[in-house]
UniProtKB/TrEMBL annotation:
Name of the featured protein: ABC transport system ATP-binding protein
Taxonomic lineage from the root: Bacteria, Bacillati, Actinomycetota, Actinomycetes, Micrococcales
GO cellular component: plasma membrane
Organism: Pseudarthrobacter niigatensis
Keywords from the UniProt entry: ATP-binding, Nucleotide-binding, Transport
Stored Gene3D superfamilies: P-loop containing nucleotide triphosphate hydrolases
Pfam families attached to this UniProt entry: ABC_tran
Amino acid sequence: MTTTAPLTLVNVTLEYPDGGGTTTALDRVSLTAEAGQLVALVGPSGSGKSSLLAAAATLVRPTSGQVIIDGTDTMGLGDKELTALRRGKVGIIFQQPNLLPSLTAVEQLVISDHLRGKSAKAATARAAELLDVVGLSASAGKLPHQLSGGQRQRVNIARALMGSPRVLLVDEPTAALDHERSASIIALLRQVTNEFSVATVMVTHDTEFVPLTDVVATMRDGKLTTPVLAGA
Ligand SMILES: Nc1ncnc2c1ncn2[C@@H]1O[C@H](COP(=O)(O)OP(=O)(O)OP(=O)(O)O)[C@@H](O)[C@H]1O
């Protein structure tokens, strides 16, 4: 199958060993996320949302099906090739911004680019640009404990964008934030999805923010119901 969408899942099934048997976390899930599209992934606890993100991030290998990232079917790739593809194409934003406590905001971003073999000069320029996008230019020199929870999540988002990913995978970005900060984080994800033309899939419990997304995909018992347009 050929596709130009940044992210396509085709009939993805993921089974975990469970005692003598198996638990089916994903049951023939198909999903496409286009460039500039923000997809909300909702559903009850245990329905498979984190498993879908992990499969899309190529952090777990599905039992069957295809995970296609920017036209590359990842199922045939070895571990090294997968790591390279992930570094180049996928940004991952976890619930808790796992920032390094001794590094300033700008250093958190620069160090992530070292792993990609970029020069320190280019990385520093890119980091400054992205901190400006997320509204943190004035806090570039601050350590994580000197930042608010919302600001730490902004650093996390900027860091995920350092490698110019095609796909952004976001797990409950507002879980630790109050209402006002949650709204501004979702608005920022909306903005960067458009500005950088990434395909963003975001797990959320906050259905009130669904109007800011393009598509709502609902998981139930490992199955994805047909994605619908937000507001439809
Ligand atoms: N590493 C694992 N080993 C065995 N079973 C697992 C593993 N990870 C998840 N599961 C099972 O897979 C199913 C889907 O779990 P998953 O974490 O994807 O759900 P979720 O929708 O993200 O839940 P929540 O909203 O509570 O985070 C559940 O039945 C869970 O118990």
